[in-house]
Amino acid sequence: MRYWIGVASHDHVLNGVKGGFCQLGHGKKPALEKMQAKDWIIYYSPRQELAPDSQTLQAFTAIGEILAHPTYQADLGDFKPWRRDVRFLEVAQIVPIRPLIAKLEFIENPARWGYPFLRGHLEIGRSDFELIAKLFEIFT
Which neighbouring-strand residues pair with 72? Predict the structure, then answer.
């Protein structure tokens, strides 16, 4: 089992949660191919919307388990992104990152805490996953 962080604006994350899929790197396939069934993904949203003048959010906004279905390509007309099916958990709150910066192992330099997110996705360790996951209020 592996643990991942995907980076997307909150409005895009909500589209994925509603549709039961994850999409990374503007729809590129390679990152999704690294994921396996039973892996987990947490989404980090730097902004509310993709627009550059959108409100800053800087929070973890969704959590879900990768399903066994293979990577597939969606057809949105001119845009054909690659996706993986995800069983997202229903959360009552998002998790702001700032209180966690000094506690997360994948953040090597707290002064440059945003750097790991520039790649659009990253693999994290179990301890970081558990730290973030326990702060979501999850409906059961």
Answer: 83
Provide the residue range defining the domain that includes 30.
3-133
Q: What is the pLDDT of residues 47-104, one digit of tens each?
A: 999 887 889 999 999 999 999 999 999 998 999 999 999 999 998 789 999 999 999 9
Q: What share of the chain is helix, strand, coil (3-state, %, to 5)?
A: 25, 30, 45
pTM exceeding the 0.90 threshold for the entire prediction: yes
- With respect to residue 108, please indicate whether it lies within any of the assigned structural domains: yes
Domains contained in the chain, number: 1
The C-alpha atoms of residue 22 and residue 16 are separated, in whole angstroms, by 6
Fill in the amino acid letter for 62. Answer: A
